Amino acid sequence: MKKLINKPEDFVRESLEGMAAAHADLIKVNYDPTFVYRATAPIPGKVAIISGGGSGHEPMHVGFVGKGMLDAACPGEVFTSPTPDQMLEAAKQVDGGAGILYIVKNYSGDIMNFEMATELARAEGNRVLNILIDDDVAVKDSLYTQGRRGVGTTILAEKICGAAAEQGYDLTQIADLCRRVNLHGRSMGIALTSCTVPAKGTPTFELSDREIELGIGIHGEPGRQRTEMKSVDEITEILTRSIIEDAAYSRTVREWDEDKGEWLDVELINPPLQKGDRLLAFVNSMGGTPFSELYIVYRKLAEICEQQGLQIVRNLIGPYITSLEMQGCSITLLRLDDEMIRLWDAPVKTPSWHWGA
Amino acid sequence: MKKLINKPEDFVRESLEGMAAAHADLIKVNYDPTFVYRATAPIPGKVAIISGGGSGHEPMHVGFVGKGMLDAACPGEVFTSPTPDQMLEAAKQVDGGAGILYIVKNYSGDIMNFEMATELARAEGNRVLNILIDDDVAVKDSLYTQGRRGVGTTILAEKICGAAAEQGYDLTQIADLCRRVNLHGRSMGIALTSCTVPAKGTPTFELSDREIELGIGIHGEPGRQRTEMKSVDEITEILTRSIIEDAAYSRTVREWDEDKGEWLDVELINPPLQKGDRLLAFVNSMGGTPFSELYIVYRKLAEICEQQGLQIVRNLIGPYITSLEMQGCSITLLRLDDEMIRLWDAPVKTPSWHWGA
Fold this sequence. Notes:
- 2 copies of one chain form a homodimer.
- The first copy, chain A, is α/β, with parallel strands linked by helices and 357 residues long.
- Chain A is built from 8 helices and 16 strands.
- Chain A has helices spanning 11-22, 84-94, 108-123, 153-166, 171-183, 232-244, 291-307, 338-344; strands spanning 27-31, 34-38, 48-55, 72-78, 100-105, 128-133, 185-191, 211-214, 225-228, 249-257, 262-270, 278-285, 311-318, 328-335, 348-349, 354-355.
- In chain A, the strands form 4 sheets. Chain A has a 6-stranded mixed beta sheet, sandwiched between helices. A 6-stranded mixed beta sheet of chain A has the order 9-8-7-14-12-13.
- In chain A, strand 15 and strand 16 form a beta hairpin.
- The radius of gyration of chain A is 19 Å and the shape is globular.
- The first copy, chain A, starts with 10 loop residues before the first helix and ends with a strand.
């Protein structure tokens, strides 16, 4: 294993120390328990948005703390869920009195710990809701997941909900918006290579020089199919068609009901994409794939969308939700409405995402 | 070779087609000869800034075309200099009547072709100056270079000179500023792995699982030393000390003298860094190294600078000047003055760099 690290056990902490040194104007880092928070938090009267999950997916989430996006992010060890005390202390640190939204990717450990944190925070008098992201069309049920995994749509939800919070939306409105972003977002990824978790020191899985993994998970979880290497146009076609042709997807999730004061099972259905839809097209690097290749993916993606009568009106291309140094990419298509477009275009100023602010 | 490409010979063109499709609001692409230009160019009365070089270093240069940075970029084939006709046609496309600055990295092919383009453009009545960047302290003379190679400082010069052009500086002022940025910028890089040029299909060089290349060039040119893998703190210490302890570096470059109407040999000296200097610290990914590792590099870099009495007042961390999917990083330290800081902070809006605009 060759990585720019010292001891594997210091990887997350030292990376956060570097972030804190580089971006003291934007963020602060608390180390025990570990969370990154907006330097100006709490902001009175603003809903606080918090996310978190295993490390190794940077810039998600720690790189997205700041104006117009997250108030705090709770990083676990690499590919390991953060703990409820991280989420609880982050909530207490950034609570501006208007409530807190936890944005949670659909992995069993994350869900369990964010639900526990929700209950702990409520017991301490904070108003907290949590919304799941489960946008990966590749597989249903996976190594760490019941139902679909949460991937690229998470970033889009953080940006759009972060802008809404900045503009004074209340907690219920932001939770509804977050759920809507999730219901209209779909993703699928592909790996050319594995990554190596520092503490393990060997690749998470083996792929030969002629193989790829279609539908890869962001922790190297198996996808739909291991197959021989294909051209980028063929790969993009498979990912894009899988997303576009994905039928209505129905499942039940647990959401906190504030009126009843209990967890309820809520049925959610992702409506399929339709001709005429306006889309945000997101081509994401898994970490080790250069911009030049992402743009070749985007070229074919745009061509397919045009053929299908789908109109790409916004796009995002680069490394945003990664798997350490894994080579590969994911595509996310989010059906936009006017409100989402307005919020997408709003200013953002974080360590890793910065425009118009 | 596993890459997200179709045919190797279509790599550059298809990547540019993807960029054109994704960023039609910011850039346009001309294909014969190939150059990327700002959608609103020419801008009457504004000096036009043009750069270029081999592809494979994205986002440099094509990702930096737009408001507050480049007016045009001329991409060659992968790791291959662009041709004079690309540079000439780009100049004619974006000339707003206030002259053109070519920013040229110090590689023999680039210099030869940009000098020829300068003469051709002058013959057609354009006013053109060109300034070299030669900031890599690792080695003197290299595979494609006489003197030092041009690396990370190029990005900083493009940002600072681009802002100056936006603010109405004239051509002579911008050329002087660009020369000053080069004289105050120093870089050095390191590779953990080689990259693979698509048309070749095999790694440019071989490194074992326990070796690194200190002082790597951005085309895989040999550096100072091939050595055993070290901790990130040791690596950062070597790179940073090499930069900080670099003595005054004197050399002669060819610059066009407008008064005399001929090329003159000009002696330039990089003054060494001194205690109390204010710095821009740039930690760059060579393409395949994740953000988390870059921040661990930054952590040690900041510590060393503080010990040395050097004050980091701005930073840039991420993949900006890359070598396809190479794993590794480079560090650039630029001594700032008030004018450079003001220009650094100015708005920029390009496909790959976007803030405050």
